[in-house]
Amino acid sequence: MSRSIATVSISGTLAEKLAAISAAGFAGVEIFENDLLYFEGSPADVRRMAADLGLAIVLYQPFRDFEGVSVGRLARNLERVKRKFELMHELGTDRLLVCSSVSPDTIDDDALAIDQLGELAQAAARAGVVTCYEALAWGRHVRTYRHAWKLVNAVNHPNLTLALDSFHTLSLDDTPDAIATIPGERIGFVQIADAPKLNMDVLEWSRHYRCFPGQGDFALADFTAQVVKSGYTGPLSLEIFNDGFRGAPPAATAADGNRSLLLLQELTREALTREVPGSTNAQTAPLYNPPAAPAHAGWQFLEFAVDDAARQRVANWLEKLHFRRAGQHRSKDVTLYQHGSAAIVLNAEPDSFADAFFQRHGLSLCASALRVDDARLALERAAGFGYQPFSGRLGPNERVVPAVQAPDGSLNYFVNEQPGEPTLFEADFVLTDVDGPTEVGPITGIDHVSLSLPAGSFDAWVLFLKAVFGLQASAAVLLPDPYGLVRSRALFSADRGLRMVLNASVDPHTATAESVRAYHGTGLNHVAFGTGDIFRAVTEFEAAGVPLLRVPANYYDDLDVRHALSAEFLDALRQHNLLYDRDEQGGEFLHAYTETLDQRFFLELVERRGGYDGYGAPNAAVRLAAQARQRSRAERQDDEQDKSL
Amino acid sequence: MSRSIATVSISGTLAEKLAAISAAGFAGVEIFENDLLYFEGSPADVRRMAADLGLAIVLYQPFRDFEGVSVGRLARNLERVKRKFELMHELGTDRLLVCSSVSPDTIDDDALAIDQLGELAQAAARAGVVTCYEALAWGRHVRTYRHAWKLVNAVNHPNLTLALDSFHTLSLDDTPDAIATIPGERIGFVQIADAPKLNMDVLEWSRHYRCFPGQGDFALADFTAQVVKSGYTGPLSLEIFNDGFRGAPPAATAADGNRSLLLLQELTREALTREVPGSTNAQTAPLYNPPAAPAHAGWQFLEFAVDDAARQRVANWLEKLHFRRAGQHRSKDVTLYQHGSAAIVLNAEPDSFADAFFQRHGLSLCASALRVDDARLALERAAGFGYQPFSGRLGPNERVVPAVQAPDGSLNYFVNEQPGEPTLFEADFVLTDVDGPTEVGPITGIDHVSLSLPAGSFDAWVLFLKAVFGLQASAAVLLPDPYGLVRSRALFSADRGLRMVLNASVDPHTATAESVRAYHGTGLNHVAFGTGDIFRAVTEFEAAGVPLLRVPANYYDDLDVRHALSAEFLDALRQHNLLYDRDEQGGEFLHAYTETLDQRFFLELVERRGGYDGYGAPNAAVRLAAQARQRSRAERQDDEQDKSL
């Protein structure tokens, strides 16, 4: 299905918007009236600009408060709409979006509305255009697509069609299942928007919080499957009112919009196939069909950009955590550390990608290597969604590892090991222990990776992880930091082999925001290692000198009030500075944090018991407050040191 | 009445919060449970910290889901609350806030709730503490103070009192008038919060958008007047959940909180006096009573910090706008320009306040001089609200002009002229024309001044203008800029002698935000000059070479559709790039903008007809888009110039 977007969805002047929309790969564009109004040039100029960019102007919008009016008002409305029809001719588009009336004096009379929409259809026929009537979720009387369709169907005129908008249907918790029963040729236009589930006035919600499909909480594939089943063959068009997008660079926003429609088409295809296993090719053929996301994915290694000093510091920590120095890269200044299935690579190679990353971001996560079922297909899938493939320098006999760039410019390698062939580590590294990694301590592997992001790139990351790896997302939560709020969202694969937590500061004053700024937007915040025995782990690591973040005694008093824990267990938690959470099914989460390294980077140890599937969100505020205290202690020590100099 | 604030209202660790609250002038503090939980120390440590700072801990909060529960649950709740009573003893406070239950399984039975609250009262009596029962606006069954009071009154026990919170009452559009009928000694605690009127879920609204009294839209003086009439003599305590405050420096936030309570007390006194002209001293005596705000205020002059080059550029513009060079300062490098009653002062004095301002902010508004009825009283009032008085260097025979610093550090001079004495201009300047200003053109005076602010200082400015000058505020509006949204709010005096418009970018990408950052937060955006004949004004000024901002032709086509304007009038508007607005009473607003000077500073010409009282908000988006185009044209020219070098 062809992809379109409304100009209101992105930032900039009309010329900047059209250029970004074209570059992103859209075929069509909806011109929003205000964008034309502020444009210093004629509608014909806009037509030429769009044509030069290969963009079809698929719709002009919006036209408001047409139906349900007095006789005198109808005459004025017909006059008003005729002038818009003339403008549409100049603009070179044949479709006008007409919203259901919102005016308080709209007359509540379907028969009258049908008569007046009939007059609209006839005027449209005379002008050679098609009107598309849409039920706004906050319309005065017409609020659902079923009601709008009742009126359009009664008018029964080819120049009056139904317009659908996923937001208006799903924001009211209305079901989309009746869409499939509407003849596709009577649906004149389909707009797509996602949104986070928010408890607020639907108009405000619509005007400020819409987002691209996949970034919010709506079941859009189910909605779009109904549209496909109706036989509709027109464009799917994004109409996104989003305060963040209004302020973001238009090229990146438009690119994400295009990806989001591709991903939606893939998920719609899956929904249709699930529903009717033998669904016809005619239905699913127009939907984007990329190689499937990897069924199984997991961390192969995390690669940090370091210089000599940072390598020394990180290596020192890894050794205290009983990581083994497992190998040295054959041609580069790159070292491999392993503990259980967790592998960390420290890259200090001069004039490399990692070096450039270090110059810009300091100690940072410059690459993640993911084990996938088929690396070539994974790359093909990522590239199909418009993510940039990357290849670096190779030494003799080193493995070509396909990679794409994540939204922060870091690399995501796709690794698959073939039976009988050397592993990636064997190919690229001189291994200390040729029999492969040995269990040396309580860490079993990487449980999850947590990224601190600039607020503006949060939703881009959600889309990246969903599109490239097929991850699912939990609902976003707000975490209170002593200096501001942090928005947090977890993404994970079906088998939980891959878990990522995204964090962004809601305001510019928290440590997350400061460290993101200080390090030019790089995302590493912390790595959580899994263990089967956290008491053993913290005992060993504390003995080895790993500084654990101290948890206030008041936390344990409160824990005791909230959960019925044995005195002995509570004492053990307190003694080891362990945090605790329990889910409704009785699953338990025990975790501990290290103090921070480099002011922003820290490690976590986690033990999951009984199927616990979260990340200890109730404890986040305790951790953030403890880190704030650590920072202010460090600042005080710096001050005192300054004074003593 | 004594002033208190909840720790949740400001940013920082508990130690930082308490220090800021004490420094701001509060007598008391509510300890929020989470702040204690994250604190690395015992409740007794908190008690000592507060005592050392001279702060009384007036309340501990919150205790949730006590009443309307099963027998088994009641026993657990009594156990739970006893532990909190013990903690309160350590903390040294005798008051606990108990919120009406929100749990879905709360039993809807007032008799049961009364029984259980009775048990709570007895437990409190045994522990020697007082419980304060509050109706949350989103309580499961108890949502209004009337309902909560019905239960508390039925229990009829001194250790169970009613807690009031203005947000919970006013967010539901409930009336506060029954508060006066409750015996004051039965009200155990009063919390005060303001909020902007928002159409959203009341819980979300409460958790994120509360603000200090005077910064929102609630009629808080009427609410507080009812509290005073009840005979309540306890503290007024701010409980503000605000995402911005969570991220802002705590000292400045706390200072504004303290001011806001002083202002609320003044307005409450006025409300009581209005209601009962002979209201008893006993009622109004405990309320703050500053010198009255000036009944009349107007612009005496605006003072810009300049260097030689900036002075040349601004003087050049002023001359084209037919300003007259009217005088030279007796002892400083300061020049006076006048046109009608509008006076502009350009200050290039080395090593002065203006010089320091220029070093930091570039060309900027470093001072505003306001004509007031009594300058000494105005200063006393401002100082009473905690704004910093300022005095600069004086030459011989120069007038001492009292001033305070505004939130951006600029000065606000208070000027009053005494009959028979030399005017300020006569005292300080060698005037070119000793007969005073002569009418030289179509400008009549300064209509309004518009400031571009960092988002975080918006509400501080609202409070400053209300407290110091007694201005009223319109509701905030959102203006669409091509690169993001701008929040805007007008403040004005009763006689409209003083009008200010505050603008702040909602996101960090608009020109407002960029220019605020680039110039270190200084606020000048534009000055609007009033005229009685805008057609004459723009004709003269264009002839003199003032570049007016061009308005797209599409704007006029749309204007024609929206308003029935004569073809001739529309043509005249179009020809002169004039914008137009009309209010519901037929009042009209004609205005034009100059292009920008120094990338951020521009001028406006406005003509108000028929009592129009707004600022042309419907045209703001057209202006912002035209300015964005001007900027991108200027950038393109710079690029081309760069290439040609």
UniProtKB/TrEMBL annotation, chains A, B:
Q: Which cofactor does it need?
A: a divalent metal cation
Which portions of the sequence form the region Disordered? Answer: 626-645
| EC numbers, comma separated | 4.2.1.118
Indicate the segments forming the VOC domain, all copies.
Answer: 300-417, 445-582
Q: In which pathway does it act?
A: Aromatic compound metabolism; 3,4-dihydroxybenzoate biosynthesis
Residues engaged in binding a divalent metal cation: 134, 165, 191, 239
Question: Which residues take part in binding Mg(2+)?
Answer: 448, 526, 604
Report which reactions are catalysed by this protein. Answer: 3-dehydroshikimate = 3,4-dihydroxybenzoate + H2O
Q: What ranges does the record list as Basic and acidic residues composition bias?
A: 632-645
Query: Which GO molecular function annotation, any one, does this entry have?
Result: isomerase activity
Q: Which GO terms are recorded in the biological process aspect for this UniProt protein?
A: 3,4-dihydroxybenzoate biosynthetic process
The UniProt record lists the keyword Isomerase: yes
What keywords appear on the UniProt entry? Answer: Isomerase, Lyase, Metal-binding, Pyruvate
- Record carries keyword Ribosomal protein: no
Q: What does this protein do?
A: Catalyzes the conversion of 3-dehydroshikimate to protocatechuate (3,4-dihydroxybenzoate), a common intermediate of quinate and shikimate degradation pathways.
Homology family:
Belongs to the bacterial two-domain DSD family.
Q: Which PANTHER family match?
A: HYDROXYPYRUVATE ISOMERASE (PTHR12110), XYLOSE ISOMERASE-LIKE TIM BARREL DOMAIN-CONTAINING PROTEIN (PTHR12110:SF21)
- Protein name per the record: 3-dehydroshikimate dehydratase
**Organism name:** Paraburkholderia silviterrae
